[in-house]
Amino acid sequence: MDKRSTQTKVKVVVRLRPCLSTSEKTFVSVVGNKVQILNHRNIEENLQYEFNTVFDENSSQAEVFSTSVEPMLEKVLQGQNVSVFAYGPTGAGKTHTMLGMTSDPGIIPRVIQSLFEAIEEKQASALNGNSNQAPQFKVTFSYMEIYNEKVHDLLVSGHQDLPIREDASKNIFVADLSEKSIDKYETFMNHFEPAASNRTVAATKLNKYSSRSHTILLLKILRREPDGKEMRGKLYLIDLAGSEDNRRTGNKGIRLKESGAINKSLFVLGEVVDAINQNQPRIPYRNSKLTRLLQDSIGGGCHAVMITNIAPEERFYYDTYCTLNFATKSKKIVNTITTHVVRPPQIEKPTATVRPIKRHSGSLPPSKPKLRKLSSSLPSLSAADPHSASCVSAAVSNDPLPSPLVRQQKAFESAIQEKLSAMEKLVENLRSTTNMKDLTASESNSPNSANKESSTPTSNKTRKSLRLSLVSVQSDDSPDVIFPTPKACKGKLTDATNLLKQRHFGPPQQKVKKQKVQYRVVEDSTSCSPLFPQSPAISRKRGSSQDFESPTTKKIKAAPHIFNNEDQAKRNTEFLELLNSASVKELQGLQTVGVKRAKMIYEWRELHGSFSSIHGLLDVPGFSDKVLKKLLRSNLVTNI
């Protein structure tokens, strides 16, 4: 991937909202690209701020789009990233600037329509020119919100608290975020309109439809040229929630928690801007989900356009003053723009190279003698045979000294060889002694012997008992050697030769078939631990299909239903009545309902009225399908 980098500053645009009431006093004036407000420290003076572009209260949506955003669309089609976000206090008109209305659309609808028009123009110009093929484009989009420091997917319900990741190329992305492919403006609106209705909006004293979250619309454009070259660009359209003064908004309960999360994220955004302007070694992007997603927009690698919205009324003086100061700091930030171009791999044809033959004018130089390797067929060193060791040392005297690991291996092999030779000598001696002993015993046990009947049973019994007490241990070196168990040592053997014979050889053992293990049920068995109840031992013959169950298992299987149909219906009705009439303290008495959820249910009921069904709890913020199922199961209510 080719990356060509250029540097550019963040483009800051200011838009002044019209005054909502003619009776209120204003304190903001626009002169060209400058904004003037009263100086609260000296009434006789004015504070003046200068920006790239300033739109007064008479500016239209089309004017803001054509001047600030439309020139950036060509950069996205060339493989660069662009970020456009609206910033300002609550009630300053950020959402109106980004979304607009059906009769007067905002930046987001105009961007989509202009983007597809630009794609059609490029394809038409390529076909009308000398090229026979037009570039291909693929456009996908994602839509998400940051609500109470949690990322929610607005295209798919149920995707909540998604993690933010960073890939190997330092690109920020949201894991498991859904994408929709679009090919025209109508397809986009079919997906976007229901997703926009999922955004969290609530009423406050300053605004009837106040945004309670930050929303980010991400567009990915892939451009593939006929020669195989690809250019990938991204377009971020961000609608930030406004900072709020809870003393004027009158926020309580859930609204107070939402405003706290919004103000915290905007405060961290200010810290990020200050850290970038002061060239600090650490930029606190990770202190908030918002700044983590804006890491590429502020001090990152994309073109950034910040549309600052302000209000002209005197009651918004402090908010407007802080907003203009923040916009002044932001226009100093420099971003390093990166163009993402992927070129097709070029296959090089192999070429045959002929090396010239070097010829020496004189005689050839003498070659170095090669060192001989140690032969693996040399006899192993043995301490018992010093002559062989001396021969081996003499044979390798001309070779280089082996490494320490080779010497340790040789020493280990010599020790093993010594033990094997000693065992072979012992085995030969035992075999000769055993043969002589068996020959003497066969001569003594002749048919004319008087003690034939008495001696034979005794020797057979002794051999049989000794054979049963032995355990055969097979080894690679001595597969026929049999070692006795400790029980064999307790037996009294009068003949030391037979004992030695049984230890090393013994009678040839036959393969003993494994006996079938049969278990029996012990009814009066007691438990080994007082923590576990008594249960009969499980017995089963091998091959039988009979299963045994403990009394506890049978009791669980035979447990009847807790409620019948009438009782369950009554329980469901009582639960729904409790949701519609109970106080916060009474709602806390329900299982899995704490103080926060009880307040959320109560406030939702006060704003929207009673619940028509139990599924109405899904409309309460913080209640998902998983939470609702757990609540109903814990309170013995069926999912109706």
Automatic annotation (TrEMBL):
> Which compartment or compartments is the protein found in?
Cytoplasm, Cytoskeleton
Residue intervals of the Kinesin motor domain: 9-333
Segments for region (Disordered): 346-382, 438-464, 532-553
Q: Which residues bind ATP?
A: 88-95
GO BP, sorted A to Z: microtubule-based movement; mitotic spindle organization; spindle elongation
Q: Name one GO cellular component term.
A: microtubule associated complex
Superkingdom as given in the UniProt entry: Eukaryota
> Which is an annotated GO molecular function term of this record?
ATP binding
Checking InterPro entries in the record gives: Kinesin-like_fam, Kinesin_motor_CS, Kinesin_motor_dom, Kinesin_motor_dom_sf, P-loop_NTPase, RuvA_2-like
Please give the chief subcellular localization of this protein. cytoplasm
Bias (Polar residues) ranges:
438-460
What keyword terms does UniProt attach to this protein?
ATP-binding, Cytoplasm, Cytoskeleton, Microtubule, Motor protein, Nucleotide-binding
Q: Which family does it belong to?
A: Belongs to the TRAFAC class myosin-kinesin ATPase superfamily. Kinesin family.
Q: What is this protein called?
A: Kinesin-like protein
Which organism is this entry from? Elysia crispata (lettuce slug)
